[in-house]
Amino acid sequence: MKATGLRIPHTLVLLFAMMVVAWLLTLVLPQGGFETIANEQGREMVLPGTYAEHDERTWLAPWTLLTVIPHALADAQGIIFFVFIIGGVLAVVRSTGAFDALIGRILERVGTRPGVLIGSGLMLFAVASGTIGMAEEYIPFVAILIALCVAMRMDAITAMGIMICGYAIGYGTAPINPFTVLVAQDVVGLPPTSGWAVRVLLLPLFAVIGFHHVWRYAQRVRADAAASLVADVAAAQHPLPGEYPAMTGAHRAVLAVLVAGIALLVWGIARWDWYLAELSAVFLGVGIVTAVVARLGADATARTFAIGAAELTTTALLIGFARAVAMLLEDGQVLHTVVHALSIPLSAVGAELAAVGMLVIQTVINLFIPSGSGQALVAMPIMGPIGDIVGVSRQVAVLAFQFGDGFSNMIAPTNPVLMGILGIAGIPYDRWFRFVLPLFAKVMALGAVVLVLAVLTGYQ
Q1: Each residue of 378-396: pLDDT tens digit?
Q2: 435 domain residue, yes or no
């Protein structure tokens, strides 16, 4: 956006730059490692206090920067194919119009009650992001939501506050988001969706903070239109709403299939130790049944699935490039050196403050790697072992990752979803920043408190 004055390189450029930095680190940092043991899931965990430098040095040739990429893509193939399948299936579900009808109907029902619209809308976006990882899928609803808010004497920032804050809080407290929680837990060797009950409680807690912030702003705008942060921005002025998609029996059936699929996914993980292959199979089943119920036709379903999967090609590449950063550090035998260096200041402040330090580190990382999956693959190989050293459980380390990744989604100018939504709404980034910064500070402060309590209570 022109209002920001920022020229942000493509995320792949940033990741390749990080790869170059990682390769340079293998040339200058001491090479060493910790002793490790296998946990119950067969994952290697470091033994605190066992770091030692190697006697002989391993050198990585410059062309390793190129050869590591296909190796990294192959190494992350399970997660990459899982992402492709989810993208394809969600495209099939979206093509039925069920999502449009659901959100349109919910918003329409509460359209004459601003408080209900803000609260239910924010919670809806938070739950969708926290369960099935929706983000880009919200873009088609920008116009509908803005029109509803304008009709109730609110503005575009109020509407985007409902959507973006709900999306960010959902990602930050996600119970089972497959793009962030499952990836991060896989990296650190935790059972998929473990610790979900605590996150289910956290989601509405943080959503209340988001509601309070958006509602207070909306009240000021309703009382005085000149109080709007975009009152003088022509692009942020929008017409009244038109027609909404009607909810049909077919839409209800499609939504029921999706809910049943998610329930089966959670049950399979808890009872039968399902993982990426089984989870992918469940989503494929949801896509097939959806096509039958909605009578989409085999050819149309296949085309839609392919388009949806193709839309996540960049995400898949980001996962591979992000994995390449960690692989360079691993192959250059300096990953444990970085872990050891980061653990020293965190160890000095105790486990509780170390968890807060992890939150800060993850927030900074999200400025450069806005992909949740990519960030998990870059950061968690470091954060997990640091937690082992400083006395922070890996579940708390994952929670710190979620908070840092999710909450900063509402403010990071490198987040393509945020910038895309603001662009459609006509909201300059500097106006949005003024609106959302106080909320970001609130959720980060509460997140720090939650992490301290999680350490004290032994959250696993």
Answers
A1: 778 878 888 888 889 999 9
A2: yes
